């Protein structure tokens, strides 16, 4: 499993709805990767994990969403499980930390290749899937 960082925007605090632009296509990221258009399946389900990617090692997820391809990148639109203690507590923490908090997403690389991009050696991410899906 690999991970990358992202920031989350609260869309509706009463419903626990969030949105995160988590990947911009055709840009070298801080890990030296270039995610290509089509790397994510549009409409694919995604889990919102407990802190520290704990849901990928057995802790219950705190929300769910979908991955949406917006042409220039990928957005996760999701909702926390506010009817669970873990979901409500995690959402409250995310909301209160605002711009101070940072998330990351986990993914498995299905297809990639190394090459040159803008004069730098990079890994092109061609096909990815959310961990656990």
Automatic annotation (TrEMBL):
Residues 5-129 form the Prohead serine protease domain. Pfam families: Peptidase_S78. Keywords: Hydrolase, Protease, Viral release from host cell. InterPro entries: Peptidase_S78_dom. It comes from the Bacteria. This is Prohead serine protease domain-containing protein.
């Amino acid at each position: 499993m690999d991970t990358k960082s992202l920031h989350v925007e609260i869309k509706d605090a009463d419903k626990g709805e969030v949105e995160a632009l988590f990947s911009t296509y055709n840009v070298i990221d801080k890990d030296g990767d270039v995610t290509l258009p089509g790397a994510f399946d549009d409409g694919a389900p995604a889990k919102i994990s407990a802190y520290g990617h704990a849901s990928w090692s057995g802790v219950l997820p705190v929300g769910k969403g979908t991955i949406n391809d917006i042409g220039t990148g990928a957005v996760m639109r999701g909702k926390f499980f506010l009817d669970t203690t873990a979901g409500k507590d995690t959402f409250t923490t995310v909301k209160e930390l605002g711009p101070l908090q940072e998330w990351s997403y986990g993914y498995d690389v299905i297809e990639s290749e190394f090459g040159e991009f803008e004069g730098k050696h990079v890994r092109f991410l061609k096909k990815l899937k959310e961990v656990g899906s």
